[in-house]
Amino acid sequence: MGFFNWAAPLVRRFGDRFTELDAAEIAGWLKPAVVPGGRILDVGGGAGQLAVLLADTLHASVTVLDPTPQMLDHVPSRPGVTAVSGVAEAMPFADSEFDAVVVSDAFHHFRDQPGSVKEFSRVVRNGGIVLVLELDPTGLMMRLIVLGEKLLGEPGAFFTPAEMCAFMAREGIAGECESLRKADYRFLGVVQKSGEVA
Questions:
Q1: Is the separation of the CB atoms in 26 and 131 below 8 Å?
Q2: Which CATH number characterizes residue 110's domain?
Q3: Is 21 a member of any domain?
Q4: Is residue 195 assigned to a domain?
Q5: How many whole angstroms separate alpha carbon 5 and alpha carbon 154?
Q6: What was the pLDDT predicted at 5?
Q7: How many Å apart are CA 7 and CA 104, to the nearest integer?
Q8: Is 113 within the bounds of a domain?
Q9: Cα separation values, 45 from 67, 104, 106, 147, 177, Å
Q10: pTM
Q11: What pLDDT shows up at residue 8?
Q12: Which of the four pLDDT bands, split at 50, 70 and 90, describes residue 29?
């Protein structure tokens, strides 16, 4: 995570990738599981830009989990948004603590992707949602981005939408992948815990 240590101020200042309209769209995907006062976990949430928008839009509590202290230093100090240091594959949370997990442009950075998905299933309640926003690695520009990330020492383990859906299903979270704008796509799945009623 060396890149994010020194890039944190730049991410906070220039990394506002999501608008209020984007947040409203994302909130619509989460609403079946997140009622006002609900709890969302933003895994790899960096400086908390999306967390703030979701907290406001859904009137929910959003916890940003990120392994980079320099990123967490830039998470706004405000009601409804909490910053926690940790990694996706070993989260410091109780079982079924959240209504939803959101991962935005971070899944390809996770060094243990299967372990991370197991943790999603553990910390999200039965019937809760897992939303992963990612980039499709096909296409020349994306191949250059993948190469750049690898040169910076990042895992750069990107999935195509079909690969993501198949991977998540193998790891126990069934869902659908949908292409969005440009190279963006989403995986939207529901956590089903055996022996529990949603």
A1: yes
A2: 3.40.50.150
A3: yes
A4: no
A5: 13
A6: 44
A7: 17
A8: yes
A9: 10, 7, 8, 23, 21
A10: 0.85
A11: 41
A12: very high
Q: Looking at this protein, which amino acid is placed at residue 3?
A: F
Q: β-strands 98-104, 124-135: how paired?
A: parallel
pLDDT of res. 1: 45
* Cα→Cα distances 101→54, 135, 140, 147, Å: 12, 18, 30, 28
Q: Provide the token pair at 113.
A: 């992707």
Domain that holds residue 96: 2-190
Say which residue the tokens 């909490």 belong to. Answer: 82
Sheet strands side by side (includes 81-85): 81-85, 61-66, 39-43, 98-104, 124-135, 184-190, 175-179
Going by C-beta distance under 8 Å and a sequence separation of 6 or more, which residues neighbour residue 100? 30, 33, 34, 38, 39, 40, 41, 124, 128, 129, 130, 131
Residue with tokens 């997990």: 101
